[in-house]
Amino acid sequence: MAHTWDPERYLTYADERGRPFTELVGRIAADAPTTVVDLGCGPGTLTELLQHRWPEARIAGVDSSPEMIAAAPADTRITFDLADLRDWRPDEPVDVLISNATLQWVPGHLELLSTLLDAVRPGGWFAFQVPGNFDAPSHTIRRDLAAEAPYAEHTRNVANPASHEPAVYLEALAGLGCTVDAWETTYLHVLTGDDPVFTWVSGTGAGPTLQALPDDLRPSFEAEFRHRLAEAYPARPYGVVLPFRRIFVVAQKGQRQ
């Protein structure tokens, strides 16, 4: 079931969402790439950072959401294109291919890695980051609630993001001839505002579920979802702590591929 993205809601807590991107890019040891592509660029706010890292490179952002591409900055040298990463192919291999918090939305993306690697020149870099927190209450509460009546008949076919362990990605890309750096980090995001965890998840992982519900059921679902999230992530004097595990992979393609 297709869903739409809300760039404004997605950019709530933009600093926390952007930190993994900067740490991923910081591990890419490309000195002077000619072409850099951000695959799943969203509204392009993070793609702009690539201009500062590689000012001489031709940089492109690609996303499958018309709403996200429409929100991308126009006053920039970066080109933004609408495309599904499963179908995207560059005119010629690129020097750096980055995918930030996107592959978890693609079922079977482990099998797609070889195709994406084909888009990178020998000696080039393929780097991605995916959430690794799908067993956290922020996800399990939504899944459990969505499976209850009267919601289940509307939510059974919604998109459910998923990822693999770092070692799985390392093994897959090493098997394709890459030198791989894979690691994980758990951030402790301190969030403020009303129902901040709901605000966070409704801009990403919970979006398809919320959009799948009819108007007469969505308010009751949201109310119970907020209540359960507040119990799982209690407010402290300094804010609400959201532990968030992220999985990072930086691979350099073999020179002879």
Spans where pLDDT lies below 50 across 5 or more residues? none
Shape: globular
Along the chain, the helix and strand elements come as HHEHEHEEHEHHHEHHHEE
The fraction of residues assigned to DSSP E strands is: 15-25%
Number of extended strands:
8
Estimate the mean pLDDT confidence: 92
Q: How far is the N terminus from the C terminus?
A: 37 Å
Rg value? 19 Å
What is the percent of helical residues?
Answer: 25-40%
What does the main sheet amount to? 8 strands, mixed
Number of DSSP helical runs: 11
Class from secondary-structure proportions: alpha/beta
Describe it for me?
The structure is a single chain. By secondary structure, the protein is an alpha/beta fold. The protein has eleven helices and eight strands. The chain has helices at 7-10, 14-25, 49-53, 66-71, 109-118, 137-146, 152-155, 166-174, 196-202, 207-212, 218-232, and strands at 35-39, 58-63, 79-82, 94-100, 120-131, 179-191, 235-236, 239-252. Strands 1, 2, 3, 4, 5, 6, 7 and 8 form an eight-stranded mixed β-sheet that branches. Strand 7 (235-236) and strand 8 (239-252) form a beta hairpin. The mean pLDDT is 92.
